[in-house]
Amino acid sequence: MAGVGRYERDENQLAREEAIATVDVLTSEVVVPAGETPAGAVWLSNLDLAARRGYTPTVFFYRHNGEPGFFAADAMRDSLARALVAFYPVAGRLGLDGDSRVQVDCTGEGAVFATARSGHYALDDLMGEFVPCDEMRDLFVPPAPAAASCPRGGALLLVQVTYLRCGGVVLGMALHHSIADGRSAAHFVETWASIARGAPAADAPVPPCFDHRLLAARAPARTVLYDHPEYKPEPAARAATASTYASAIITLTKQQVGALRAACAGASTFRAVVALVWQCACRARALPPEAETRLHSMIDTRQRLSPPLPPGYFGNAVIRTSTAATAGEVVSSPVGHAARRARAATSQGEDYARSVVDYLEGVDAMNLPRSGVSRADLRAISWLGMSLADADFGWGSPAFMGPAIMYYSGFVYVMNAPGKDGAVALALSLEPESMPEFRKVFADEVARLA
Question: Is residue 120 annotated as a catalytic residue, yes or no?
Fold first, then answer.
């Protein structure tokens, strides 16, 4: 999927979009769990409280496989109701405990489930035009409740099944970030999909674990040994970027990924790809050589702790990390140097992860800075571990899965490219004035590696 999606559009573009980009909502209802679920509350960890407040909207595109009943609303609704039995906190609402700490009240009130139809889009058209942006989110993901935050916010899960002109389907989903990170969201989709394919709800691929006290701060309190600047406000000289951005999806073939990894001395796919994006972004932004540029990342702590978290841990288990360099260092050095810098932002172990949790115990985790990154920086997130095959609801794997929106400039997702073994898809956002140069520089660098 090529092309650039912009928030800032001229009047002709706006008129064209208003004329063609419409989706008619057919039904909208609240789906409650199909059986009895536990009452009470789920305690949220500091990592849950520190997560971005609001929803994470994602989209899954499915090509019609010719079978009758393709993504039938009844089948999707009924399987969702059964999935909510195992994942009962998802059917609850955010609330407050006696100390005014945010928690999940397990009320069983349910999730929003909508169906819609697009008379304009066929799947191939959408695959060619789609970039993460407000317009696409508004078309294919239900709107967030007005009261999305605590106390007593709205539904924690919003789902929309949109039937396209060609018979294909877009499954749009928004799960509240306070209760789940990307890995947990994928776990929920995997379970829902397995139930839709006919598996008993009791035979969930991996039973969910809601014991968030596994990530509680250590007692007695420990001295915090690390600085954790990622959880502190940016200095005034490094103010966050504006929300206006251009977004794009770029695919690297298996051969291109292999060549890039070879140039990065055996670095992981994520680190190698992010290193090249970092270099090209610094060049496209024309940063002065002396300017500080910081690569932010999110790392999963599940396997970094001793003992590791249970395989089905459902919540936020990721921590913010970063590494800094001058733009001149990043641009003038081989890409392998940037990859080694990227490793510095993604290799922390248990001591660092526990330190983050301890640090958050001493601050107001609900009101941490969440306004984006500096114009010189990037925030990179890996979705490489999310298998598209696990999102098969009985009619085949998705033709594409990705974020429905980019929250600000400087965001990068690294994902598996659908249907292309070993290929990688990038969803990224930059300032509108920087994106054209980035695409040119990035294409030149990839060609040079080959």
Answer: no
Contact 150, 192 (CB under 8 A): no
Q: Of the listed 176, 177, 212, 228, which one is catalytic? A: 177
What six digits make up the tokens of 178? 């306070």
**pLDDT tens by residue, 116-136:** 999 989 999 999 889 999 999
Give pTM, 2 decimals. Answer: 0.91
Q: Where in the chain is the domain with CATH 3.30.559.10?
A: 4-215, 229-449
Taking residue 29's Cβ as centre, other Cβ atoms within 10 Å add up to 13
Amino acid at 128: G
Q: Which of 389, 425, 385, 392 is nearest to 127 (CA)?
A: 425
**DSSP 8-state symbol, 31:** E
CA-closest candidate to residue 38, choices 93, 99, 105, 98: 105
The residue among 444, 450, 448, 431 whose CA lies nearest residue 4 is: 431
Q: How large is the average pLDDT for residues 19-35?
A: 87
Task: Answer for the pair 411, 131: CB distance below 8 angstroms, yes or no.
Answer: no
Tell me whether residue 67 is exposed, middle or buried, using C-beta atoms within 10 angstroms of its C-beta: 0 to 12, 13 to 18, 19 or more: exposed
Q: What is the pLDDT of residues 266-291, one digit of tens each?
A: 899 999 999 999 999 999 999 999 99
What superfamily does domain 229-449 belong to in CATH? Chloramphenicol acetyltransferase-like domain (3.30.559.10)
Please name the residue ranges forming H helices in 295-384.
327-332, 335-344, 350-361
List the beta bridge partners of residue 382: 414
State the Cα–Cα distance between residues 432 and 268, nearest whole angstrom: 30
State the distance between the two ends of the chain, measured CA to CA, in whole angstroms. Answer: 21
Q: What is the DSSP letter of 215?
A: G
| CATH class name, domain 4-215 | alpha beta
Beta sheet of 378-383, edge-to-edge order:
4-6, 246-252, 424-430, 411-416, 378-383, 292-300, 318-326
Quote the CA–CA distance of 360 and 225 in Å, as a whole number: 13
Q: Which two tokens stand for residue 221?
A: 């309190």
**Backbone torsions φ then ψ of 295, nearest 5 degrees:** -100, 110
- Catalytic status, residue 64: no
